[in-house]
Amino acid sequence: MTDDTRQAFDLAARAQSGAETGAAGPRDRLLLRDYPVEVEIGAFQAERGKTQRLVVDIVTDLRPAAPAGDDVDRILSYDRLTEAVDSALAAERLDLLETLAERIAARLLAEPQVERVYLRIRKLDRGPGELGVEIMREDASDATEQAGQTPRPVVALIGAATAAAPERWRDMLLAEAGPLVICVAPAAPGLAVPDPVAQARIDLLAFDQAAWAMVPVLGLEVRDSRTELDWAMRRGAASLWAPSRMVAAAVEPPAGTGPGDLAAWLADRFDAREILLLGADAPGARCPARRLDPAP
């Protein structure tokens, strides 16, 4: 891999490789060099709440194809490279460059023209030099599944009082056509502290606890990341949502930490078909809301 990466980013090395591999030579390539972005990323506390400069280099090997002539609609546009970077950064806050690199590569490998991706990401603001990662990915099977169309879910928002009597609504809720993502309001407010950032985290952890409390009642798994929820949705599975991790990692977090704020934010992020309300007020989401009245 080291030689492959060196050849990908070094045109002189690539030319030498072509001479050694015979008349056919290496694949045509599309390049993006020194693409600057500024984003919040990093696992250390000192890296939270501030942005860092990154530089991204991408080289894509293209599959053999008939000549495109001068028709822009028959080629892989340069914009697809920058869009892969920008969309991966916009999805959520990440701790690791390695994760960011994998997600960019997955997006590019989902393009039908792309056979192989070489990717380098460097941090410019950590330490005396440039820190970074380099990867090469070429198996598009997993990437295509991850980048494929995720079904639009139904988000269920269960009020705290209603959650206390699950025998009145459990079967009715689980009979709804999936995929289903359930947000449970906590029974009581959490510890009150004067710091607003700390208070928001405490409030979110109360929702996590409420989700876990429903596990023995509903027999569902708690999921706390977009990756896990995507996986469950593609399989039509229902999930209990623990929001604290996703909200903390969000580039654009919800407006508040109330039940309606969180349900609306989740529904908008996943383009939900609708929000089911069980003993809860309608949130201000883009999708319609429908009340599901528990049995008496």
UniProtKB/TrEMBL annotation:
NCBIfam families, per the entry: folB_dom
Entry protein name: dihydroneopterin aldolase
SUPFAM superfamilies: Tetrahydrobiopterin biosynthesis enzymes-like
BP GO annotations: folic acid biosynthetic process
GO cellular component: cytoplasm
Keyword Iron: no
Domain Dihydroneopterin aldolase/epimerase positions: 30-137
Keywords: Folate biosynthesis, Lyase
Family: Belongs to the DHNA family.
Record PANTHER family: DIHYDRONEOPTERIN ALDOLASE 1-RELATED
Keyword Transmembrane helix part of the UniProt annotation: no
Catalytic activity: 7,8-dihydroneopterin = 6-hydroxymethyl-7,8-dihydropterin + glycolaldehyde
EC numbers for this chain: 4.1.2.25
InterPro entries: Dihydroneopterin_aldolase (IPR006156), FolB_dom (IPR006157), GTP-CH-I_C/QueF (IPR043133)
Pathway in which this enzyme or protein is active: Cofactor biosynthesis; tetrahydrofolate biosynthesis; 2-amino-4-hydroxy-6-hydroxymethyl-7,8-dihydropteridine diphosphate from 7,8-dihydroneopterin triphosphate: step 3/4
Gene3D superfamilies according to UniProt: 3.30.1130.10
Residues annotated as transmembrane: none
